[in-house]
Amino acid sequence: MSATTQPPTLGHSLDVTSTSPLPLGRLVRVELRKTHDTRAGLWLLIAMAALTAVVMAIQLAVVVVNDISVDYAAFMTSTSFSIALLLPVLGILLLTSEWGQRTAMITFSLEPRRWRVIVAKLLVGGILATLAVVVALLLGAGANLLYGALEGVPATWGLSLAEVLGFLLIQVIGMLTGFALAALLLNSAAAIVVYMVYSFVLPPLFQLGSFLIGWFGDLRPWIDFNSAQTPLVDASMTGQDWAHLAVSGVVWLWLPLAIGLWRVLRAEVK
Amino acid sequence: MITVERLTRRYGDFLAVDDVSFTCQPGRVTGFLGPNGAGKTTTMRVVVGLTPATSGRATIGGHAYRDIPNPGRHVGVLLDASAQHAGRTGREVLTLGARTMGLPDRRVDEMLDLVSLTPVESRRRVRHYSLGMRQRLGIAHALIGDPSVLILDEPANGLDPAGIRWMRGLLQGFAEQGGTVLLSSHLLHEVEIIADDMILIGHGRIVAHGDKESLLASAGSAACLVSSSDNEWLAEALTRAGLAVTPQWGALRVAAEPVEVGRVALAAAVALTELRPADGGFEDLFLELTSDTQRDPAATGVAS
């Protein structure tokens, strides 16, 4: 139109040669910040730590009163009522909060290559799961020391690295499952409800099925994702256990995750 | 520069955007004007890659939006000022933007200052913000990466008249430095105040495109407002002269050039107290151009 009146540097094309793309590390730092820069997010993290401590305190009280002998590993299993419950919720909120609050529009306009945002969020989920395990280990150690002091016996430690890694893997799987359901449903409430069905309704159904139907009992290890994770707890995974975990994970984790991510990467962001 | 070529977006049977082409020039503020549901937002969303196009394409400075590295440093986007996490503070919203783009945190304070959000306001959570404050925050977020292109959807919505005037100054200053601005509005007077060029859209199709003056000239419906010592007598004289007269706010609206009205008044020996070109001409144009695409039929004169 009136290009001659424009300064030569401000032409009609955009010079992007000197701009570098967003480094993944920066995206991870921003996504990590988003998990605790609101009251709701911060309190979810605090609640996870607090609930872990409370459950362990109850466990400690029960074993001391009833004079039951426990060790470090026993305290760690109690986290199935705390972080194992809330990490998937965290995984869900990592994604659905962007949809519910409609900030996905901003996030994806600052990084249009959406898969990089997704990778950053998954890494943040991994970081938080690891942190949760570290906190649980510290709290468990505290509970175990208190137990030894209260009972007047030396505390039993003996938690192997394999057990710790198995424990971490369980938490990461939980977080990933939450994330997969979140991507599939893009709605916090729906994803949390479906996750609860996953972890509380399905296991008894599987148990009942294998009790009543003979052939189902043989099939169950290959399709029951929950029971496939059980040997991870005491690090007794055999080759066949790993195969069970991998195969049952296809249906309950990888398939929903793949469909969900395909949806998020293509969805119209409103 | 923003270039949209033969862009179409279809939802089932509904054509939200129908074969739309236009360009936005650097150094100018382009107003995207149309009634609600005309396809403005969908077009802008396609430009920034949030909505896939059914056919056609949109580029910014020759690049598809998704191919621009660190796009926040080149294109400032504000699509919906209310699409913010209600639990974040305004300062936190800007901090996230600055960190994502790799900018120092002092940019946050500079932008808060630019859009006149006070330090106290910046520490309040967005859920307590008025729409006007959210718009200011959204503008700050769009500008924080020092972009050369701005894409703003309804940025004046919720601003008071002083706020609209402030935005005009801000955007014209931005354009004077060579920036390209595309902003949308469903209110004519907002675009009339802020924009240099205009794109009129209705039912997904562009109905007019050009700079404000030439659009006005092409309207060809000259009109003026006149009042006199005896409006009734003047109205009668004007009607006798074959001119269309409509009473409007204590004056008369006449479909004629001021000089013709002056002649009639002279002949009728009526003393004029005011005679000026009607500034509603643009509104007539807007309603006329979008009348067959409006939800409500265009209102004809106040009393005809």
Mean pLDDT of chain B: 88
Low-confidence spans of chain A: pLDDT under 50, at least 5 residues?
A: 1-10
Number of domains of chain A: 1
* Spans where pLDDT lies below 50 across 5 or more residues of chain B: 297-304
Percent range for β-strand residues of chain B:
25-35%
How many E-type strands of chain A?
0
- Mass-distribution shape of chain B: elongated
Taking the sheet with the most strands of chain A, its summary is: none
Query: What's the CATH C level of the largest domain in chain B?
Result: Alpha Beta
**Which protein chains make the most extensive interface, counting residues with beta carbons within 8 Å of the other chain's beta carbons?**
A-B, 43 and 46 residues
| Number of strand segments of chain B | 13
Q: What spatial form of chain A do the alpha-carbon principal axes imply?
A: globular
Count of the domains of chain B: 2
Count of DSSP H/I helices of chain B: 11
Distance between the termini of chain B: 45 Å
Contiguous helical run count of chain A: 12
- The CA-CA distance between the termini of chain A, in Å, is 34 Å
Q: List SSEs of chain A in N-to-C order.
A: HHHHHHHHHHHH
